[in-house]
Amino acid sequence: MKRKTVILAIAIAALLIGAAIGWRFERDLAVAAARAAHGSEMIDTRCGPIEVQQAGEGAPLLMIHGSGGGHDQGMAWARPLTQHVRVIAMSRFGYLRTPRPADASPEAQADAHICLLDALGIEKAAVMGVSAGAPSALQAAIRHPQRISALILIVPIAYKPGSVADSAPPISDDKDAWLLRLLGSDFLFWSALRIAKGPLIRHVLATPPELLPGASAAERQRVADLADRILPVSARAAGLRDDTRLGKRLGPYPLDTISAPTLVVSARDDGFGTFAAAEYTASRIPGAHFLGFASGGHLLVGHDATVRTEILTLLAPDAATR
Prior knowledge:
Elements: H1 2-37, E1 41-45, E2 48-55, E3 60-64, H2 71-78, E4 86-90, H3 106-119, E5 125-130, H4 134-143, E6 148-154, H5 173-182, H6 186-195, H7 197-203, H8 217-228, H9 237-248, E7 262-267, H10 274-284, E8 289-293, H11 304-315, H12 317-321
Parallel strand pairs: 3-4, 3-5, 5-6, 6-7, 7-8
Antiparallel strand pairs: 1-2, 2-4
């Protein structure tokens, strides 16, 4: 009798704990979905509808987010720049409310960037590609040089020849598959945020978590915010799958044809190995400035202010000086 009572108590406790976890998950997911939709609008372009969030005044800057992002991630990253420039943060193909067309290549996405500028009545803009946003930013500068006033590549996923040594071991197919499973489930990602945040920061955000204790409170909050903003991953899954495939088959671009003033930034301990490719890319673009850090990971922990100053030096020199 006592044994049955204990088993019943354990079962009831498990049900209550499961119900509490389910309630917390549903609540947090609803908050994340509302946050992802906040501030954006759909712009009809000749390349199809594109989700956009805008803020600030001044010279236009088209902000192209990385994997797991959207207009929300792009604006969160670029918002400090809105004191000096007009930031146009868009959701790439397959992210949030921007549909994925049959051709979701970087070339097609670059053409869609120009379609967006046309729809907004912007003749020329700077373009900033972060991480997996770099290929379409590069293609925009290559395919539409007359429309791009400056090019900024932050921890870019980019091609490098085999003769250039890797700055980090290549990500295996097995790890890619594991990451896609994690990033394909809102519940799995939500759980990882709460019980395995260190490994998540290391493997999903490619940043050594041991950098965070020594970082400023603002930097720690920035990293936490970027991780939280990946939810809901279900609304970003199509874009994430495309980015994963693209990273495995990048080819060389005619970088020497790029005429826009260019800034390229990376950190040597970026777990995605962008440092070597970023350095190579900068070496091939005429007049490009490469800003490389010894540490900071994919999120450039500890260098946020420096990077933004360099960006403003390129886009708004008077503001950078102030």
